[in-house]
Amino acid sequence: MNQTTYTIEQIGIIRSELGSREDAPRQVYEGAPHAWLQVHSAFTEGLKGIAVGHEIILITWLHKAQRDILKLHPRRNKNRPLTGVFATRSPDRPNPLGLHRVSVLEISGNRLKVGPLEAIDGTPVVDIKPVLPRSADS
Amino acid sequence: MNQTTYTIEQIGIIRSELGSREDAPRQVYEGAPHAWLQVHSAFTEGLKGIAVGHEIILITWLHKAQRDILKLHPRRNKNRPLTGVFATRSPDRPNPLGLHRVSVLEISGNRLKVGPLEAIDGTPVVDIKPVLPRSADS
Question: Which residue of A has its CA nearest to B136?
Fold first, then answer.
């Protein structure tokens, strides 16, 4: 039997004025503030080459999510049909990964000011990727 | 001390003609085939609402990657300066997550034909998300 679970680790954490899921907009275009990404010291070397003005993708671990949900009403609207979580952007899903495309606004040591970002304060960050000009997900 | 590691689990696996990292194009626009995503039966309910013609983002776990690398020469080209992994799309990074935007070409039970996809055969899939018309990362 091949391995089917893996260990993922925090490389940093979000510091935001958004304190809870209830405060957070459902999508970034619904209004989201700037926030700070604090990268843990063990990983700061990995930031070399990121500069103010770059567009980056943060992958977060949505630690408040429910992982045992496979279907839901999109946007918690009971009038919308039950939909598979993989056809939605709900944080509730088996592996609660969040994707956030943000601009780098300021860099101060191991801290990046980024935005706009709908993730709440304390959200763990597990990866950072550049937006490539022709990348498949940019 | 808050939790800083998490367990992520396979929800499916890629079946592709690409057998190894050496076969795989570095970026999808450099030529990549279609492939099948086999979703494990415990998670197939989560697919409800995904249809042929949709654009989706697969998040993979790049199981052949080296996780202890923080800087590298982009595209393994020694003439390019050492760069932090978070400023590159290298699979070698602390949490080897891959992002792949693909089209859904065919659906057969728990199997989705998708493409183009540069991930190799046997790559674990850990999440699927819809591309939203105005999403931050689409």
Answer: A101
